[in-house]
Amino acid sequence: SAAVYTQTTDxxxxxxxxxxxxxxxxxxxxxxxxxxxxxxxxxxxxxxxxTPFVDGVIGAPVYYNVMGIRFDSPQPGINIVKEADGTVKKxxxxxxx
Length: 97
What we know:
Mean pLDDT: 77
Radius of gyration: 19 Å
Strand order of the largest sheet: 4-3-5-6
Number of helices: 1
Largest sheet: 4 strands, antiparallel
């Protein structure tokens, strides 16, 4: 799941922007907002280029569940997979019936 805040300023009759319509007043505590964004964007680790290392095998994919817990193999449910080339994808892994 995700949240995207697209309205940076208030517009006409809407008042849910980060700044007022005239951009004179920032309505959020900037440090608190920065900390929240940083926490969300680094949930699965810092943005960097790395070589995955799993069970002694360089280049093996790394699996995370939606809570950010790392696994060596796919788990039932939604998995976030970081491939050796740095690409990330989501997969739905179902248990055998």
